[in-house]
Amino acid sequence: MEIDSLREGFDRVAEKRASSSAKALEAVDHIVNEVEQAIVKLQMMNTDSTGNVDHTAILAELKAKLNEMAPINQLEGSQKELNIALSKYLKLLEKSFNPDISKAYRNVDFEVHTVNNIIANHFYRQGLFDLGDMFVRECGESGGASLKLPFQEMYSILEAMKARNLEPALSWAANNHDQLLQNGSMLEFKLYQLQFVEILSKGSRDGSKDEAIQYARTHLVPFASVHKEEFQKLMACLLWVGRLDQSPYSELMSSAHWDKLAEELTHQFCSLLGQSRESPLSVAVSAGFQGLPTLLKLTQVMAAKKQEWQVMKQLPVPIDIGPEFQYHSVFVCPVLREQSSDENPPMRMPCGHVVSKQSIMKLSKSSSRPFKCPYCPSEAVASHCKQLHF
Amino acid sequence: MEMAIDTPSPAPPTPPTPSAAAGRQTRAAESVRLEHQLVRVPLEALRSTVRSNNRLAEKEIAAALSSASAAPAESSAAAVDHLTSLVSRLHGLKRKMEEGARAEEVQVQRCRARLDRLASASTGEDAEWEDMRLKRILVDYMLRMSYYDSATKLAETSGIQDLVDIDVFLDAKRVIDSLQNNEVAPALAWCAENKSRLKKSKSKLEFLLRLQEFVEFVKAKNCIQAIAYARKYLAPWGSIHMKELQRVTATLVFRSNTNCAPYKILFEQDRWDFLVDMFKQDFCKLYGMTLEPLLNIYLQAGLTALKTPLCSEGSCPKEDPLSLEGFRKLAEPLPFSKQHHSKLVCYITKELMDTENPPRVLPNGYVYSEKALQEMAKKNDGKITCPRTGEVCDFSECVRAFIS
Fold first, then answer.
1. A374, B74, B229, B404: most buried, per Cβ within 10 A?
2. Element holding B399 (H helix, E strand)
3. Does B2 touch chain A (CB under 8 A)?
């Protein structure tokens, strides 16, 4: 789409609008002018007693002048120009955009309270608590409020981190020590590490050194065997107390660590809550924006079969949406062009190529007779093919 | 199905897939084309402001002209008085027109802001842009559902007032509220304001409002007035809507508590809800909006694209919106998407497996991405533990699988 040509089209509209409204004001000014002149003449006639001008003549002259001006015609002319520019621009919009995106809409009832609960949940998990409360009040649904408290806790931890206060984050991580470990997350250690570096890079040399050592003894030692390398690095930092920025480890002070850790914390927090990392509403709507163009094209092609479109169980064509929306492994047998299933699972031939079980049975005709792989010159025997699990 | 599998072609060349980035960009450009409503609504609002300003100017100027020519001719003093009051009236008109022009200017700016917004979208992956887009769509939803306070708050706190149409919907709210209070006057005024365009789209709204007013007279047992009303306001519609007109005028012989079905419904209170719906439809059409909230349209498309038979299984990952009950419920009446090509997601990293991160098969037949296995091997002295079966093997035992 050419945004520039749209802008040009709209500039014309704006220009014609401005000139039309200026012309209208001008017309009023002209009328005022003429009327005022007539008033002056009438007043002069009063003082001038020669009496050779008749006031009816002045009024007639005013009338004639106003008629000659024909202000209404002028207005109509400039309005017409504006209307032409407008309808041209409207046509351009119709051409540049999809004028009716509801063509692919299936007429089904979207249960209002389900949608409202999804929205309320979305607001809470985005940290928009006041808005969420207001929305819940206005729409009268309360099912979405369950996420409010946990996400309030998460956002207060993140707020504190922004103010360089790690205490709430550390206490949360300590409380969820086991689950974090199970998730294979190093979050807790990384938080202690950040706090340790923070102590080292702040304050006077001697005071902070003692404090740092004390801190390392209580909090870092338990992780020493698991994160050996990092632990050693951190201990070496003690040599540069107060001037860590000049050490080979200055990278540890980068504020990027804070951002990354905040992200990791969000991730783990959601994971422990059993929530996805992204708001599901954002995901579904983004997928909608990517998928809708294809759906609209499809309905256009199927225009004659509108009834069929409303009831079909599976789309006849794939919808191309980004890889970020792929949550499930799908195997489509390249020979049969069919999606695999429990009855027809994917099989790997000894050469490494994968086709479906049915294809192999068709190719081999018996389990012991060798057959040629459809993708390379090597031969395979059905009994040597192995079922895969994705 | 007839398949030429007896003479398989040697390794078919994989079709040149456009790079992921290019795909993303075309998709982004395609989604911008969906934003018709974003640019259309403020333009319609501008159009209607311009129209009513023009109407005012024309009417007042014509009145001024006739007033100027009708100046009393008896004495010059009377003429001066008359003309002086005309001048002050014209000054008043000018002030009103200037005010109107300022209102137009605000709407011009709004139209521009929308174009600027779309221009900034061309790059593709932009989380901030997508977030704003979702917010716009949520404001649209809340305005249509009459959650005005939440809509306003969301627009204000995210600074997107120029990108949403709160004033347009507040205008509609006046009409909707009055209809809910069983008043037709504001709705009729709205019809009069947009008369020519409603006529062009063959709107029945005004006729329906008139019918309702007629029925209200009948309900109040005010038959004489009802007949007079019908003569004046219903008769002109006779040529287009004769059948309905006949049916409604027949209510004259019934009481409002009649059990005669075709007339009973005409007396019912929910006719007002029907009028609200009809008004909403015409209102949306007039402004070039979709009849459904944008949110519903995009959610439906998104859920269709995401819906696979695998989503209903217990192992559906929580990142998939369709793992949640609410989304599943919404997706129930929607079709499944279809896949033409294999797409494999690594069980461990949840990343797509492709040529850069190919799938590898453990001796037990379970498949994981190379990256995930390398990572695991690095940490465990080359040993791999299958996360689904617990079997242990050596990284070197994991073989490549070629998926086309």
1. A374
2. strand B399-400
3. no
